[in-house]
Structure prediction request, 189 residues.
Amino acid sequence: MNAVFLSMPDGSETDISICTSCGAAARGRTNFDISEKCCTCWECGGPLTAEEKKHPGHYHAACDRLRRGKMDLARMENAALVENYNGPVFADGVRGGQDGYFRSLDELQDALADYDETAPCLEFAYCCTVSPIRINLDSVLEQITEEAYEDAYEDIKGVGELQESVDKFNATNAEIQTWNADYTRKVKV
Ligand SMILES: [Zn+2]
Ligand SMILES: [Zn+2]
Prediction:
């Protein structure tokens, strides 16, 4: 907000600028804005206290929340709307699921209906990518031979049989899944 270039005793200007609020210096003509923005909130332009500079840093706490809210909103707006989606959904902050994850849109709607007080107003939820848990035998073998002698990986025997068992294991446990919010796709709640 208040930055100046330092001058030499003879009055000639240097390329070192300082923030007049805290005295922090930045070298280089192109870094003048570092001094300018030093003790200033990047959201509203108002002055920051030393505490706020440390946390959340660069922003007033309220401005930081506002800014994050705007980013969340923009992300949701940009996500593609999916029709006839069948799968888990993510709705951050909604109670009753697992950290915002719900098995289906129905389950999310049930959770919203279960609120005693006013439920969060929700227009959309994110779709999820679904990956079954699985053992990757190659990476397991690489891992156990990592510290062994060179080319030990090639000397391992019984890999074919083990691979068959692993395939069976992976197929048997395909129902156990990991869900991850896909911020590029959304469904209407
Ligand atoms: Zn400063
Ligand atoms: Zn601010």
Observations:
- The beta strands are 3-7, 13-19, 25-27, 80-81, 89-90, 101-102, 124-132, 177-188.
- The chain has a mean pLDDT of 93.
- Helices lie at 32-37, 50-54, 61-78, 105-113, 137-145, 152-155, 159-172.
- The two ends are 44 Å apart (CA to CA).
